[in-house]
Specification:
Largest sheet: 5 strands, mixed
Helix content: 40-55%
Number of helices: 15
CATH topology of the largest domain: Rossmann fold
Order of helices and strands: HHEHHEHEHEHEEHEEHEHHHHHH
CATH superfamily of the largest domain: NADH-ubiquinone oxidoreductase 51kDa subunit
Number of strands: 9
């Protein structure tokens, strides 16, 4: 796998020879984009932070992968922490940061001691005075959102903030801040060092009704069926969920869909961080939707009314449908509620909390109708 290559600090040495501006130019030239789902150009983000007027800057590695079905960050931290840390070193050097943070998912505390040990080893070998601190989150999914991460590290409640200002100009403690996720920063040394580095390679997390769940590396543009068949489906796939926030689609109808952000959007879903959960024909989409609704109801930070109250009502209605205690018109009410939550919630968590449901009601409405008593 490309992501598991090591440069043994040779990329950092090359970066120092290029100088901060040279590194940023190289990253822009190589076309490294963020791997968290938004796909924002990494070099452009670094350039904005470096050019912002400030006496201090920060780099944050977002290792708070709370999305159900996503586990690529853990794989990288376990198998290639050295290259991740080198990526943080290069990013900090490029933007002029003297301190960096790794915001580690609360459920990943088991990785902290090993990661701390690797940080000391790499910094010592690199002879760098950069300070890298591991900040363990409290397990809140919303802290995967960049402004909520800032609030959490500052000791405040992990609530998202209004943007602008953006973290690149007013971030951690009011200073310009780079926030990149684990996969993005691990790719930095590889992009700097190797001429054959492929900017279109992505890590796919595939789980659900498959015999070989795991992290697979593949180029953008391969067909959905190729990705799913690699993980050996159990039985005939009925649907594929792109995590929880990315929505779902019927497998057979979209089996030849190219796995590119713009192509997946044509299927009314979002590729996001390339997470795919396979659901077999033996399962009811109502049960899957109810499980996802439980997750969003639990993870809502409570800041805005549509998400706080809406996720509770969605879950209650789905539970009623699950046990056959609902009326036919309740399905229309559920759809209307899902649309309202999507359009009126404050942050990305609420805005995508019902994407799975909206798609499920469009493509698998019969599953819901079959649960309602005639």
């Amino acid at each position: 796998m490309q992501i598991l290559k090591k440069t043994n600090l040779k990329a950092f040495e090359k970066a120092k020879k290029l100088g901060p501006e040279g590194v940023i130019s190289l990253i822009k030239e190589k076309g490294l984009a963020g791997r968290g789902g938004a796909g924002f150009p990494t070099g452009t983000k670094w350039e904005m932070v470096r050019n912002a007027e400030a006496d201090e800057r920060y780099v944050i590695c977002n290792a708070d992968e709370g999305e159900p079905g996503t586990f690529k960050d853990r794989m990288i931290i376990e198998k290639n922490p050295e290259t991740l840390i080198e990526g943080i070193l290069i990013a900090s050097y490029a933007v002029g940061a003297k301190k960096a943070f790794i915001y580690l998912r609360g459920e990943y505390t088991c990785l902290k001691s090993k990661l701390n040990k690797k940080i000391k080893e790499v910094l010592s070998k690199a002879k760098s005075d950069l300070k890298i601190e591991i900040f363990v989150g409290a397990g809140a999914y919303v802290c995967g959102e960049e402004t909520a991460i800032l609030a959490s590290i500052e000791g405040k409640r992990g609530h998202p903030k209004v943007r602008p200002p953006y973290p690149t100009t007013y971030g951690l403690f009011g200073k310009p801040t780079v926030i990149n996720n684990v996969e993005t920063l691990t790719n930095v040394p590889l992009a700097v060092m190797f001429d054959d580095w492929n900017k279109d390679t992505r890590l796919h997390c595939i789980s659900g009704d498959v015999e070989k769940p795991g992290v697979y590396e593949a180029p953008l543009g391969e067909k959905l069926s190729q990705a799913i068949e690699r993980a050996k489906p159990k039985g005939k796939p009925k649907a594929v969920y792109f995590g929880c926030f990315g929505g779902c689609m019927p497998y057979e109808k979209f089996r030849d869909l190219e796995l590119r952000p713009e192509k997946v959007c044509e299927g009314e879903c979002m590729l996001g961080s390339c997470t795919m959960i396979v659901v077999s024909e033996k399962r009811s989409i109502v049960d899957v939707a109810t499980n996802i609704a439980k997750f969003y109801e639990f993870e809502s930070c409570g800041k805005c009314t549509p998400c706080r109250e809406g996720t509770m009502r969605v879950l209650a209605m789905l539970q009623n449908i699950s046990v056959g205690d609902a009326k036919p018109e309740d399905i229309d009410t559920l759809q209307e509620l899902a649309e309202v939550i999507k359009e009126t919630s404050f942050c990305g968590l609420g805005q995508t909390a019902t994407s799975h449901l909206i798609n499920a009601l469009k493509f698998f409405r019969k599953d819901f109708e079959d649960r309602i008593k005639k």
